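Operator note (shift B, R.M.): manual run for Filamin-A-like protein requested after the automated queue skipped it. Running by hand, logging everything below so the morning shift can see what happened. Input copied straight from the record, untouched. If output looks odd, do not overwrite the archive copy; leave it for review.
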Amino acid sequence: MSKKEIDPKRVTASGNGVDQGITGQMCMFQVINMANEVDNISTSINGPSQPTMMKGIDENGNAIVKYTPNLPGEYTVTVQYKGKHIKGSPFKVQILGESDPKLEMIKKIEVTG
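Run finished. Output pasted below as returned.
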């Protein structure tokens, strides 16, 4: 690793989006890396719902990631820098709140007649 390269374990993420959140409310986290290489940061989420993750850049050149979960439960948020997990990734994020009945999967269908 050259002097200019950053060790992925030195890249950090902070904010409620890598800790916990509430259904229907935006979760956000900031990814801080000394090289400000936002293009080399990839994110994904897996959980009861699959919210879209929106990525932007703050005034300091760090990545800002936002998502809005619609169902409660445990989500796994993965953050990688140059294809390798950053410090703490994957993050287990607990989403609290009520389920939106329109978004719950149908568990059983009974047809009569």
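Quick read of the result: The two ends are 69 Å apart (CA to CA). The beta strands are 12-14, 20-22, 27-32, 41-46, 54-57, 63-67, 73-81, 84-85, 91-96.
Leaving this for review. - R.M.
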